[in-house]
Design goal:
- By secondary structure, the protein is an alpha+beta fold.
- It has 4 domains: 2-148, no CATH class; 158-271, no CATH class; 278-401, no CATH class; 405-435, no CATH class.
- The protein has 18 helices and 15 strands.
- It has helices spanning 28-40, 42-49, 60-78, 95-104, 116-136, 141-148, 194-204, 207-213, 215-221, 225-233, 244-259, 268-271, 313-321, 338-354, 361-368, 375-378, 393-403, 423-435, and strands at residues 2-7, 13-18, 158-164, 173-183, 189-193, 240-242, 263-265, 278-284, 297-298, 300-306, 309-310, 325-329, 332-336, 359-360, 387-391.
- Strands 3, 4, 5, 6 and 7 form a 5-stranded mixed β-sheet that branches.
- The relative contact order is 0.07.
Length: 437
């Protein structure tokens, strides 16, 4: 017996049992509890799914929704708001991120009802549910979180800030550690430099208070060499001017810091999910092939781009000869991994040399769909993350017409058809006419 979450036409989540291999070790008690919680409210069921007593391996649909609610709790734990009612208005992920979640959803009953607007609604329901539940909890918001998951620490609102400092060309980044010591009249946490907590601890002779504040920092230090060194040298308690290499090391390790319970504030160009980085872009089908069909050969051209814009020769030289990590290109900081860029670029130059007449249509469509066309691409490993594929002008227009051939004129089935076509049948004839042109 296997369990799955289904979506109803009105956007309600429901738990069902299906015939099939089990093996996920979900007990009947867990099944019944989750079923009842989902009947009570979407948010109640999702919150239950986030608790630690569920197996690490779940059926695909349950795993998808668990990942969604875990993302919500990561946002909640690191939000710079008053715990409790402040959670009622947590910022929802951007539409582009929600759309990516929809695309990545596994097969499930009612998948056609899954949309970014539904995820946005569920996020809002989770916000309201978390705020109300935390206020009703006897021990308050922290007790409610710990009951759900003992690792959901909110002890010590320590924040690590990384910002640009354009006044210093050699050390263009500034780092500061702060802590939230009170709530303002506008219900916002007020931050102070972490050094003041150290001074206050010495003056009051209360080292225990400082230890509690630094608890998430010590957890981060156990996983991050950078945080460990900052804490050991006490540089953590003073503002720091950093080089791009030092800032990149911090950015690379910021994930483990967040997981430990430290709040991280990063520049927008890094904090956003759509991080800008140079990539090898392969544009496929820019020009019309000599003949259209499955045997068509599509032209393709690899080039290095940033945010879809081609680099000039001098910019490419700067990119490949400059420092690893972070580089300032066109006035913006971008993440650079020269080895992977070079590896991806050389691979596609070899592919172009071995396919001088172009790629087959099927190969081009596979690449645009995210699949590979050879075992060599699978061996690229991490370098594949630095490669993007884009349909050229002819292929993009052709694919658009394939999706909607309503504008095809002059296509009539002929006098031999003794029937009046319905609107959807007319569209079908138009599409077939276009496909056989």
């Amino acid at each position: 017996m296997s369990f799955a979450i289904a979506i109803s036409p009105d956007g309600r989540l429901r738990l069902s049992s299906e015939e099939g291999p089990g093996g996920e070790r979900v007990s009947s008690e867990q099944f019944e509890r989750l079923r009842c919680e989902l009947l009570r409210a979407n948010a109640a069921g999702l919150v239950d799914l986030s608790s630690v007593d569920w197996p690490s391996v779940l059926p695909a649909s349950l795993s998808f929704w668990r990942d969604f609610v875990r993302q919500f709790f990561r946002t909640l734990c690191h939000a710079d708001v008053l715990p409790g009612m402040g959670w009622a208005d947590l910022p929802c992920p951007e539409q582009s991120e929600l759309q990516e979640l929809v695309k990545a959803a596994p097969p499930m009953t009612g998948l056609e009802y899954l949309s970014s607007s539904l995820l946005e609604r569920l996020w809002s329901e989770l916000c309201e549910y978390a705020a109300e539940s935390a206020e009703l909890e006897q021990g308050g918001p922290q007790a409610w979180l710990r009951r759900l998951n003992p690792l959901a620490h909110l002890v010590g609102r320590v924040t690590f800030h990384l910002a640009e400092n354009k006044r210093d060309a050699e050390r263009p980044f500034a780092f500061l550690a702060t802590y939230s010591h009170r709530v303002s009249a506008q219900a916002k946490p007020v931050h102070r430099p972490l050094a003041e907590a150290l001074k206050q601890s010495v003056v009051e002779g209360d080292s225990g208070q400082l230890e509690r504040l630094l608890e998430p920092v010590r957890r981060a230090a156990s996983e991050s060499g950078l945080v460990s060194e900052l804490l050991r040298s006490k540089r953590l308690f003073a503002p720091q001017a950093w080089t791009p290499a030092e800032a990149y090391q911090f950015l690379q390790q910021s994930g483990v810091m967040e997981s430990a319970g430290v709040v991280i504030r990063l520049p927008n160009w890094w904090a956003s999910r759509r991080r800008v980085r140079p990539q090898v872009q392969v544009k496929i089908g820019n020009s019309a092939p000599s003949q259209v069909g499955l045997d068509s050969l599509l032209d393709f051209r690899p080039e290095v781009v940033i945010d879809g814009q081609s680099l000039s020769k001098s910019e490419l030289e700067q990119l490949m000869q400059g420092a690893e990590g972070l580089q300032l290109i066109r006035g913006s900081w971008v993440e650079v991994d020269q080895e992977r860029i070079r590896e991806a670029l050389n691979h596609w130059k070899k592919v172009r040399a071995s396919h001088p007449d172009g790629l087959e249509l099927v190969q081009g469509m596979r690449l645009l769909a995210g699949a590979t066309i050879s075992s060599e691409e699978q061996s690229l490993g991490g370098a594949s993350e630095w490669t993007r594929f884009e349909a050229g002008s002819w292929l993009r227009e052709t694919l658009q017409r394939m999706r909607s051939a309503d504008g095809v004129l002059g296509c009539q089935p002929g006098r031999d058809l003794q029937a009046t076509l319905r609107p959807y049948q007319v569209r079908g004839v138009q599409w077939l006419w276009f496909m056989t042109e």
